[in-house]
TrEMBL record:
It comes from Ornithinibacillus halophilus. This is MoxR-like ATPase. It holds the Pfam family AAA_5. GO terms for molecular function: ATP binding; ATP hydrolysis activity. InterPro entries: AAA+_ATPase, ATPase_dyneun-rel_AAA, CbbQ/NirQ/NorQ/GpvN, P-loop_NTPase. CDD domains: AAA. Residues 52-201 form the AAA+ ATPase domain.
């Protein structure tokens, strides 16, 4: 287990300043990475866990920014990141790599093309496993040894024993309760430190819209922030599914509203993605009220 990860000097100094003074400089650096969390302690805790060689599991609703969170951590640590996108079709080749025919001086040979897990281990970089609970339960145990103190795997395609470099780290993300997902088994879950990632709201969301969309009209931005807050509240009350309050979908609606009316932008980006008529009508009524 890696216990002496060397953080970049600028990150060390800003972390120390955060502890002793104020979070302004830290927030500024984080914003350069693309994700500013609702509570800066989320990022401090994630950085602390990764710096001790622990795996972290980002847990939260769809569109809350988990992937952007992982990319920001990669940026802060100055570490490249290999990614795995989980699905029911995920298999050993998708994780570890595959064999293929190649030619060397007109001689046919079998070569192994490493996958994201092997690449991240050998290069000592971050490995990001997205929607980890979409994978079949029998697939992920293949990398249990990668995720615990051993940091080792025997490549079934080459019989090579691969041990990760010290700077190797694993970040995974999970959306719970969605169609196609399965509960993580305890053996896998126990290999992670869990970081809850809530929705971005209020002033942070306003800043995100201003910096990540083409929408510049402040009045319209404020209305979209209000819309998002109402959608999130409806999710908490059980009136809407989490998909309806996706921040990613909201940003799409903000972009579209530069060229088409906001209500139509909301229709295309949010409403038409939902299956239940009750939810669709709820959001349409909310949009009509706000953007009348």
């Amino acid at each position: 287990m890696n216990n002496d990860y060397q953080l970049p000097e600028n990150l060390v100094s800003i972390l120390n300043e955060k502890k002793s003074k104020s979070p302004e400089k830290f927030t500024e650096l984080v914003r350069e990475g693309g994700y500013v969390p609702p509570h800066i302690d989320l990022l401090i805790d994630a950085i602390s866990a990764l710096s001790m060689g622990k795996n972290i599991l980002l847990k939260g609703p769809t569109g809350a920014g988990k992937t952007k969170f992982a990319e920001t951590l990669s940026y802060l640590f100055q570490q490249p990141m290999f990614s795995v996108n989980c699905s029911v079709d995920l298999d050993a080749e998708s994780l570890l790599g595959f064999k293929t025919l190649t030619y060397e001086e007109e001689k046919q040979m079998i070569d192994f093309i490493p996958g994201p897990v092997i690449n991240a281990m050998k290069h000592g970089t971050f490995l990001y496993i997205d929607e980890v609970n979409m994978a079949k339960p029998e697939t992920l145990p293949l990398i249990n040894g990668v995720l615990d103190y051993r940091r080792t795997i025997t490549n079934p395609f080459t019989n090579e024993i691969v041990t990760a470099k010290d700077s190797f780290n694993v970040i995974a993300a999970i959306n719970e309760g969605y169609i196609g997902t399965v509960p993580l088994n305890e053996a896998l879950k126990n290999r992670f430190v869990v970081i809850e990632v809530p929705y971005i709201e209020g002033e942070l969301l306003k800043n995100l819209i201003q910096s990540n969309t083409k929408l510049k009209d402040e009045t319209t931005i404020d209305l979209f922030v209000k819309l998002s807050g109402d959608l999130i509240e409806a999710v908490y009350q059980g009136k809407l599914s989490e998909d309806a309050a996706s921040i990613r979908a909201l940003l799409d609606a903000c972009d579209l509203s530069n060229l088409i009316p906001p209500r139509r932008a909301i229709q295309r980006s949010i409403v038409d993605k939902l299956d239940e008529d009750r939810e669709r009508e709820f959001i349409k009524n909310l949009a009509e009220t706000l953007f009348s």
